C-alpha cells in the first residue's frame, strides 16, 4: 500500500492545458475520487499517475518515490479501464495471468495466484471462457481480478462503471466498495458521476479546467463548496445562487422550505417564492420558480414527500432558509467562502 | 390508369430497385465481358484440342488435361508455383507486419516514408519489373557492382541466370511488390486495436516483444490472413512479373503455372492445353479462399 502524491503536475497537449498545476495527496488506503465534467483533466491526471502519459511539468510520488520517467510496469500500479480492455483472444484465466507472466513468474506459482484473484471476485467458473462470452458485469470482475492479481500498491480506476446498465451499476458499486475496504488498497477513482463520487469516495477532488477546485469529504464538498463551480456541479438539482451587488449567496434546494413547515432552527431568512411549475417525482416534489427581488434567477425547491402541503402554481408563497444553511461566494467565481453575514 | 403510369415513370429515379439495376449494370457488364466470358471460354477450351492452327472445337473430354499432366515441365511449374507463392508470402507477412508497426507510430517524415512504401504498389507491374530486370542484369547489375566494391564477390552473380538464385530473385521481387498492399491491410488492423488494450498491456507490465507476440499479432491474425490471401492469389494468378524477369527460365527453373499457360497456349499455340493449365489451380484457389475466409471469421474477436 502506498500514498500517492502529485506536486505541481501539469500536462499540455499542444496549446491545450489539460492539467494545470495540480497538487494532491492521498491518504494510505484511501478511496479518492476525481470528479469533474468531461474534459476537466481527470483522466489525464490518472493516466499520468499510471505512467501512460508523461507530464509536462511536476512530480509524481508513489510511496514517497518519484516515478517521473518510469514506465508503467515499474510503478506497481494497476488500472481498470472504462472498456475493461480485456484481451479478447485470451481466456479469462490467461487474461488474469498476463500481468504475472509479464513479471516472469513461473507457471507453477501463477496458477494459485490466478485462482486466488478469481475467488476474490467470484469468477472461478468463468476461467475457461473468453471475454466475448461474458456479460458486462462479469467482464468488469475479470478486469478487476487482472488488475489486482499482482498485488499492486496503487489501484487506478477510469470510469469503470459507466459501461454497465443502471441496475448492475449499483450492485457493482457495492462490490467494488466492499473489496476495497477488505484489501485496504489506495484507490484513485475517476468519474463524472457525482452520485458515484458521493457514495464511494472517502474524499472527492472536484476538478474543472485542469485544476482541483476543492478536495474534501463528500459532506464537505456538498455542504461547504469552495466556489460557485463546485456549488453548481455537486448536487442535483444544483445549489440555488442569488446575486447581490457585493457577493453571491446560495442554498441547497432541500433547504428552501415553506414557512411553517420548517422546524428546529429559529434563525431563518424569509423569502417570497413565486412558483411557476411543480414536478411530482413520487419521493419528492420539485418547485420551479424565482425569488421576488431576483426575478431573473431560476430557483428550485425540493420538498420531501412528507410535506403534503398543497402548493398552487403562479402564486407567491412564503418560504424560508435557515441562516446556517446560507453559503456566500465572492462575485468572481474563484473566491473562498466568505463567513456567513447577516442579511 | 394513364395517370398512375405517368406518375410511376416520373418517380422512376426514386425507385430503389430501378436504381440498383442502373448503378450495378456497368460493373456487371464489365465483369461479364472481361472476366465471365473468357472464363467460360477457357473452361470450354480446356475440354477440346483447339489450337491456333486448328480453331475447331473438338471435345476430347479429359484428354487435354491428361496431356498437360504428363508434361514434366507442368509438374515442375506446379512445384515452382507452390514454392514461389509460399516463400514470397512468408517474406511479405514478416515485412508487412513490421512495416505496419512502424508506419502507425508518429515520427518525422512519416508521410514521405508512407509514400515511398506504397510506391511499388502504385507503379505499373511491367514497368516496375523492367527496372528490376536492369537491377538484376547479368552484366551491368548495380547490386553486383556494390558487392564488388566491398570485395564480397569477384565475379558476376547472374541473379536471373542460375536456377536456384533465379527462384530467390523472383521471390524477393514478388515480395517487394506485394508488401505495400499487405502493409496497408495490416495497418488498418493495427489502427483498429483499441488504445485501451495497448494501455492495459503497458500497465500489466509487458514489454515490446510480449506485446507484439502475445497481444498484437494474435489480434491481427484475421487481418494478416486476409493479406496473405490476397498475396497468395496474386502470386499464383499473375504472370507478368515472372514473364518479364525470366520467362520461366533458365530451363524452366522459374516456370510457374501462369507463365506456362501463356507460353503453352498463346506462344505455343496449343490453346486447349494453355486453358487446362490455367484452370488447374482454380479449385485450389477456391479452396484456399474458403479456408482463409472461414479462419478470419472465426478469429474475429473484437
Model description:
- The complex is a heterodimer of chains A (343) and B (302).
- Chain A has eight helices and 18 strands.
- Chain A is an alpha+beta fold and 343 residues long.
- Chain A is elongated and about 75 Å long.
- Chain A has helices at 42-50, 92-103, 107-120, 136-148, 166-183, 194-200, 218-223, 228-233; strands at residues 4-13, 16-25, 31-35, 57-62, 65-66, 77-80, 154-158, 186-191, 203-208, 211-216, 240-243, 247-251, 257-258, 268-280, 284-291, 294-304, 315-322, 327-330.
- Chain B has helices spanning 2-10, 16-46, 63-70, 72-103, 110-122, 125-135, 142-149, 163-192, 195-203, 208-237, 240-245, 257-267, 271-280, 282-298.
- Chain B starts with a helix and ends with a helix.
- The mean pLDDT of chain B is 85.
- The interface between A and B is medium-sized, with 27 and 20 residues.
Main pleated sheet of chain B:
none
The low-confidence runs of chain A, each spanning 5 or more residues with pLDDT under 50, are: 333-343
Radius of gyration of chain A: 24 Å
Tell me the total number of β-strands of chain A: 18
Portion in strands of chain A = 25-35%
Oligomeric form: heterodimer
What's the Cα radius of gyration of chain B? 25 Å
pLDDT averaged over residues of chain A: 88
The gross shape of chain B turns out to be: globular
Q: Order of strands across the biggest sheet of chain A?
A: 6-7-8-3-9-10
**Largest interface by residue count?**
A-B, 27 and 20 residues
* Overall helicity of chain B: over 70%
Give the termini distance of chain A in whole angstroms: 49 Å
Order of helices and strands of chain B: HHHHHHHHHHHHHH
Number of helices of chain A: 8
Set out the fold topology:
The complex is a heterodimer of chains A (343) and B (302).
Chain A lengths: L3 E10 L2 E10 L5 E5 L6 H9 L6 E6 L2 E2 L10 E4 L11 H12 L3 H14 L15 H13 L5 E5 L7 H18 L2 E6 L2 H7 L2 E6 L2 E6 L1 H6 L4 H6 L6 E4 L3 E5 L5 E2 L9 E13 L3 E8 L2 E11 L10 E8 L4 E4 L13
Parallel strand pairs in A: 3-8, 3-9, 6-7, 7-8
Antiparallel strand pairs in A: 1-2, 1-4, 4-5, 9-10, 11-12, 12-18, 13-17, 14-15, 14-17, 15-16
Chain B lengths: L1 H9 L5 H31 L16 H8 L1 H32 L6 H13 L2 H11 L6 H8 L13 H30 L2 H9 L4 H30 L2 H6 L11 H11 L3 H10 L1 H17 L4
Helix pairs in contact in B: 2-13, 3-13, 4-8, 4-10, 5-8, 8-10, 10-14, 12-13
